[in-house]
Amino acid sequence: MTQKDKKLLSCSGLTIGYENQTVLEDVSFDLMRGDYLCVVGENGAGKSTLIKCLAGLMKPMSGSITHANGLSRRDVGYLPQQTAIQRDFPASVREVVLSGCLNSGRLLPFYTHEDKARAAKYLEELGMTALADRSYRELSGGQQQRVLLARALCASRKLLILDEPVTGLDPLVTAEIYDIIKEINRRHHTAVIMVSHDVKTAVRSANRILHVKHTVQFCGSTADYLKSDVGRAFMGR
Amino acid sequence: MWEMFSYPFILRALVVGILVSLCSSLLGVNLVLKRYSMIGDGLSHVAFSAMAVATVMNWAPLWVAIPVVIAASFLLLRLSANSRVKGDSAIALVSTGALAIGVFIISMKSGINTDINNYMFGSVLAISSSDVVLSVVLSLAVLALYVIFYHKIFAVTFDEPFAKATGIWVEGYNMLIAVLTAVTIVLGMRMIGALLISSLIIFPAMSSMRVFKNFRSVVICAAVISAVCFFAGLLISYQYSAPTGASVVIIHLAVFAVFCTVDWVRAKVRKFSAG
Questions:
Q1: pLDDT tens digits, B2-39
Q2: Which of B44, B34, B54 is closest to B189 using CA atoms?
Q3: Total of domains in chain B
């Protein structure tokens, strides 16, 4: 397979912002199948805004995002930050995971057998089968993230976009979630784009790093990042 | 007391009331979860104002109120999406503004106080036989649309960003909910009253969420509660010659208290058996 065949997504000259305020300028990078890209940078550097843009929640002010090799705009397994609404939402684990199957754009008013099988498969893979009929709001933070990961996988196995997946979790559970994400990435060759505050752990699992601060400071392999000035300065904090 | 069902106006009220109760309870679950509980209150004041104008001008009230309230619910959604006016204050602005306009217009013309009283507190007599057909058709349409789009409405309510990222037309479904809510409010407010109609949206959802923990059971239970409470409310209102709206809401209040107790007892039992 050539480099071109492996390319899933390519950003060129992205400028992102709200109304007339620019948050990020001139972001360009390619994402290959099986890549694990971690977006790092300080608070307010525009990491989450970039993620929103990649997930299709907002349009870039200029530049383009191109999907390649059979990846469509709907093929995005997105894990957004949790909202206050979800914390007391009465929904069973199964209902939440199944809602990931709605992205095929069809008009069917019910879920098909394939949808149910897909949901069951990812519930199993994330070790949540026993809790499938429990209420989402009664789960622990780590269990909730597993459910949302299963939902994201139902939506797409090609690309996961994760916005701070471990916020508010204790160190043990955090490590567990990172292991699960790494395992998904390894087993299914799912490309992962993740934003994280926790640079040290992120660097351990990712093979590529995108460091942003209003523009791209570094984009390349994790090994090169650790040797670079910007990487050493950021990791050395 | 069963002889009451030999009166055509009671039968009309029963049919329209049950259908409107079902619509409002289904939509209510989504509105309460989306923190839009008071949207019903806001829209009913707009409906009040529209009906006041219709009464003064001698137009058919439903035909005036439905488009006006649909427009208002779009406006509320837009205002809430705009970060400068937050959802709750947007609703308060629209609601009190509309009420003021309605009261002002009515005061221009004297001698229609009974109609106004009916709109504020509701009356079973308000449903004419020509209204029944329109009400039944519209509320069946609301129910059908809700059932057809049930899963997508769930996805949009639970997690808007995720739904949007997977290509669901989130704005479209929000608009759908707004339109369905507007229609339901207009159909229900003349019987239940502008001041009380929002309780049909809030109470069934709140009661049902006390006891049930997954979305489908919550929705089904809310619908059942709503239909039963309306029926009981209608019986009581006939028996004691009390306004229908108030009677229905009092039954809802009682059901809410019972469900809270069930939830409380269940939590105690669980705590006890856990040691």
A1: 888 888 888 999 999 999 999 999 999 999 998 888 88
A2: B44
A3: 1
> For chain A, how many residues are written?
237
Integer Cα distance of A48 and A193 in angstroms: 11
Q: Give the minimum alpha-carbon distance from A71 to chain B in angstroms, rounded to a whole number.
A: 13
- Which residue, among B84, B153, B159, would best test binding to A if mutated, counting the most A CBs under 10 Å from its CB? B159
Where residue B165 sits, what CATH number does that domain have? 1.10.3470.10
**What are B221-264's pLDDT values in tens digits?**
999 999 999 999 999 999 998 888 999 999 999 999 999 999 99
Among B226, B190, B220, smallest CA distance to B22 is for: B226
Q: E strands within chain A?
A: 7-18, 21-32, 36-40, 62-67, 77-79, 159-163, 191-195, 208-213, 215-221
Q: Give dist(CA B95, CA B65) in Å, integer.
A: 14
CB-closest option in A52, A90, A103 to B166: A103
Count of Cβ atoms closer than 10 Å to residue B87 Cβ? 17
Q: What is the separation of C-alpha B267 from the centre of its chain, rounded to a whole number of angstroms? A: 30
For the stretch A112-171, pLDDT in tens is 899 999 999 999 999 999 999 999 999 999 999 999 999 999 998 889 999 988 888 888
- B231 located within any domain: no
The tokens for A108 are 């069917």
For residue B142, is it within any domain? Answer: yes
8 Å CB contact of A56 and B164: yes
